[in-house]
Amino acid sequence: TVSIAADADADEATANRAFTVTMSGTASTDVVVNYTLTGTAGDPADYADGSGGSVTITAGTTTATIDLTVVDDGVVEATETVIGTLDSTDNGSVTVAVAPNNAATLNINDNDTATVSIAADADADEGTAARAFTVTMSAAASTDVVVNYTLTGTAADPADYADGSGGSVTITAGTTTATIDLTVVDDALLEVAETVIGTLDSTDNGSVTVAAAPGNTATLNINDNDSLTVSIAADADANEATASRAFTVTMSGTSTLDVVVNYTLTGTAADPADYADGSGGSVTITAGTTTATIDLTVVDDGLVEATETVIGTLDSTDNG
User: Fold this and answer.
1) Are 126 and 159 in contact, with CB atoms under 8 Å apart?
2) What gap in Å lies between CA 117 and CA 210, rounded to an integer?
3) What is the chain's pLDDT, residue by residue, as a tens digit (320 residues)?
4) SS3 of 134, please?
């Protein structure tokens, strides 16, 4: 009978691998043994069969080898198998051994690794709705690779953006990139530039690791595209017996930060003879609101005098 055995397991850097076909005794003539190769490895992508489907055990000997040349590719992949199965011989007196000795499995272990890194889109304002991080793998894999990530930063989901990828992206087999897609919210708030920091956490493939810092993180900047104005209005006319009077400073929209508004008071009325300015030359419109008041305390003197004026003029703000 003829039986088959595989070389010991080795990685794909070991180019020369073989099955050994053994006959239980010698023959006086050459014996041709036919075989089939199957398994998860493919010819010629993963190996080349140098024997062409049959080997010859020469007269007086008992062995022949099925020689394979393994391809050392750059693809991250699972262990692949080549299964050699003996089919028949050309000698009626030499039969194929019964299972399991009629077949053997040769394992080709992978020797490739890869890393994943992340990069952010260029800076843009919040009017650019579609933004993304690109996750890149240093080499392709034969199977899909899931990459897990976390988003932090000063921008918040869903107030400032929506994460369409949900914490993980898949780099499909044979490719090297995937995108973390964000939809930016174009709000009407006056705010500073906000950040979304993408950090890669892990993968589902032990041969694919997260790159070391700084390649494991990237920052996407969302610049503000809003501008606001401040205006001023005075209380209705009243006589000096009405002690509490005010100007109202109004901002055309809200801000995420306090806004300080500077002003000047002029006119025919004088401070402190006719009124006292309780605000001291500036007022603060607090974050999330739109108004502040310049509070005056009017002096009810005993003088007969013409109507006097206080002119409130806005000068500047602390927010460009």
Assistant:
1) no
2) 7
3) 999 999 999 999 999 999 999 999 999 999 999 999 999 999 999 999 989 999 999 999 999 999 999 999 999 999 999 999 999 999 999 999 999 999 999 999 999 999 999 999 999 999 999 999 999 999 999 999 999 999 999 999 999 999 989 999 999 999 999 999 999 999 988 999 999 999 999 999 999 999 999 999 999 999 999 999 999 999 999 999 999 999 999 999 999 999 999 999 999 999 999 999 988 999 999 999 999 999 999 999 989 899 999 999 999 999 98
4) strand
- Quote the tokens at residue 120: 């952010």
Q: Name beta bridge partners: 251.
A: 230
Closest CA to 171 of 143, 212, 200: 143
DSSP class of 142: S
- Give the residue among 15, 19, 102 at the shortest CA–CA distance from 65: 19
pTM exceeds 0.90: no
Those residues whose C-beta lies under 8 Å from the C-beta of residue 106, and which sit 6 or more positions away, are 6, 7, 17, 19, 39, 68, 81, 82, 83, 84
**How many other C-beta atoms can be found within 10 angstroms of the C-beta atom of residue 302?**
4
Nearest alpha carbon to residue 67 among 37, 45, 38: 37
Return the DSSP state at 98: P
Which of 31, 38, 5 is CA-nearest to residue 19?
5
